[in-house]
Hints:
The complex is a heterodimer. Chain A contains 15 helices and no strands. Chain A is an all-alpha fold. By secondary structure, chain B is an alpha+beta fold. Chain B contains 23 helices and 24 strands. The longest helix of chain B is centred in the C-terminal third of the chain and has 25 residues, at about 645-670. At the A-B interface, helix 2, helix 3, helix 7, helix 8 and helix 9 of A face helix 10, helix 17 and helix 23 of B.
Amino acid sequence: MAAYLLRRIGYGFVTVLGVLFLLFVLFFAVTDPDDIARKAVGERARPEVYAQWKKNHGYDKPLFLNRSFGAYDAGRYTQTLLFEHYRSMLTFDFGRSDADDSPIARRLWEGAGPSLSLTVPLFAFGLVLGVAVALFVAFFRETYIDRAVLVLCMLTMSVASLLYIIAGQYLVGMLLKWFPISGFDPNAAVMARFLALPVLVGVVAGFGADVRLYRTIFIEEITRDYVRTARAKGCGDARVMVRHVLRNALIPILTNVVMTIPFLFTGALLLESFFGIPGLGALTVEAIQGNDFSTLRTMVYLGALLFILGQILTDISYAVADPRVRLS
Amino acid sequence: MARTGVLAALAGLLAFAGCTNNPYPDADRDKKVLYSSFSEAPKTLDPAVAYTTAEHVITGNVYDTLLEYHYLKRPYQLIPGLAESVPEPQQLGDGRQSYRFKIRPGILFHADPCFALSQTGRAAREAVAADFAFALARIADPAVNSPVISSFAEVLGFSEFSKRLAELRKGDAAFAALPVHEQYKRAGGIEGVIARGDRELEVVLAAPNAQILYWFAMPFTTPVAWEAVATYTGRDGRASFTDVAVGTGPYRLAVYEKQYRFVLARNEGWYGTLPANAAAPGVAFPTGIEPEDVAEGRIDPSYAGRRMPFVDRLNFSRERENIPRFNKFLQGYYDEGGIIKESFDAVIQGDRLSPQMQARGMRLDKTVEPSIRYIGFNMDDPVLGAPAGERGRKLRQAMSAAIDTNQYLELFLNGRGVPAQTPLPPGLFGYDADYKNPFRQHDLERARQLLAEAGYKDGIDTKTNTRLKLSFDTSATTAAANLQFEFLARAWRQLGLDVEIKGTTYNQFQDKIRRGAYQLFIWGWIADFPDPENFLFLLECQNARSKSGGPNTANFCNAEFDRLYRQMKDLPSNEQRAALVKRMLAILEQERPWIELYHEEDFNLSHAWVINSKPTGISYPAYKYKDVDPEIRARMQAQWNAPVRWPVYVLVLAMVALTVPAVRTYYRERL
């Protein structure tokens, strides 16, 4: 298992290097550092301000080769944007925002809390509800309950998530007046008041896809011999569904769930933006809108990193969930 | 397990029973707090740099200025703020001019740990003339990168100080390592900025500039404590000066979580609290209230002469999106708001508030922004511009007459704008409400005739017998923006011209402008201060983009216009100046470097509990004039926001009704 993990991490590291190269091409070769600087300091900034800004943000170096160094001088390769890009990303030294000069690490730290406060309950409620409803409809498969829930799932899957947000804010916040339409307060005592609506909207938006997936998994399990055996031995329905079907369906569910966990840190782009939650999703949207390339680069890199981490975690979780699986 | 489920359901129902959509703590219900919102997080609170609306909301209320604008008078009028009076220019010979500001007594900076540096043993200190001089030196400092550095170029020795500072820093590492106030001292300061004792600041101009006074009504020139700049360096774990605000204003920055909220709290040490300053124009609510403001419910006359500010706390929450912001305003959780496109018809009927909104006690105030949206011609272009001579002029006139601004405003802005006849918006000196620009009246026949006179009959170049092809460069690629550009291009296509819209990103557009690779472009301008000079300088040859990289993107150069501009800009607003402005506008009428589209009109909504809310048009601090009635607000909010709970009970019953028969049937069949 250890050898497998090491190999898996090694593959992941190579993938990260590839992702970083793609990022470099996208953010430096396609976007001119001069444009980034001009956007940040303004069109009418004096040349010395412009040059200083580029220096402060490390955009004053050549892309691949530094010709001011000799042919065999290490500086030829290390004093370049490419090297600096790899160094900063691999050491998690993300530098400062192109938009407001604030340290990106601080922004990430500040945004992680609000993001997690939204995504963790959203994930937990979504998972519990999805699994519970899927178990329920799988149990009542081929009845009108099953068909009604499937129709409901199709309906919820057919609606764009932005519409859920706007409709949710209007229906629950404006018409029913249950929760604030938007806002955030880090005070734990009142935070739930602000998170209730985005969590509700997020759960409803993801409901259809989750239930359909889990239902399919459960129905496949229900038809297996061990279920019939369990019933023949006199197991009750609840016991069969929870102790046998649910347990044996864990692997495909885990595939879906564990991949999601790392992304809880990156937040939810639309939900955070519309509900005024100052998390990492909103930070990403803001970076896109404000041409904040350094922050955007960091967020894309972290997204890729978390994706790779999610894959490794999924593999490990297989082994944990099913003793028959051996990682080698 | 079943018992746990029931308990959980009961707990859920109990929690639900306490639900409310009020985003604020109940404890604040009866307090004098004004609630507002912002969409973009401020990038900087450095008063020398802060320029956006969200930034000015903070800097304008936390930092006081020497001069201010009269809250009620239109056209805008300067009044003393921290200065005892609005100074008159004194002629010093050699064309030099001086302004002497007498500074009021008892102006204290907000209490802040940074004042430990001055070793007075106090948490705050008095603001003195040297602090104003320090602020001006910071504007001149190239490292600060103030966006208004060029506006002070006429201050004697300003540019020289700037250059000296840059050279000293470049050539002397030890100098560059000094705290900035030490650097400024050693660099000799700005020759024309003289602190005469603690309470007099003299500003000497190398050449007359009547507009300079407006800059002293903006937060850029507020007194800055050197201790704050020296302390908040952003290094060694300290906050950055861009994220703190140590001012002298009526409010202090109490909470600054810029990603989602900031709170300004009443400054108990404000100079206005001193009896000696109680009647100062920046402290006492103005008298001489216009009857119209009273009749419209904007101003409560009982406030005349009362000491400001009236609200204890200003609470700003971030709303990135328009729809939630507007909905929260409708719920009464924001005291003031604008109107979003999506709800325009529900809020406005005709040009008034809809009966529904009127029934809520809401008030609508319209104000024309001192701004202009225009289409510019690149006057360096051989077809459209000056090189084409009379032919080019007629072509520009024809294209100008083809645009129907009224229809444009109706289609894209819900009519929220005033069709522009000249670059000058209403409310400014030189604006003539009766003037109709002959080339800004939509007249397709006239446009076709002018086009034929230009040698492009029906859009065909009579010399080459080919259709005239023009490119319209834009800096937006969204579907909504494209519709607007299509509308304009279609008007020209009706004349027979072949106009291609070249939509690019903002950066690519800027690049085109830098390279001069454009023919037609659409742009806008919002005035820094309410004076015709702040619009007409956009067409001065010295500011031509192709010559100096200046803001004259049309590259318009007209010797007579420039001569009149130089005469006009330094004159006080009198008849002679009015005549000069008129002659300049007449040149623009014929030459048509711009097609003036419209001056945008703001529709501001405020609730019945907001008192003394008069739209300012230009960006200046106005919160100290406003008041709220928390009792009315609490009553209205409770009335508008009583939760509707029955759908939950119906939903639970429906689910039970749906499930129980299935379960029963299932078990019956199994048993």
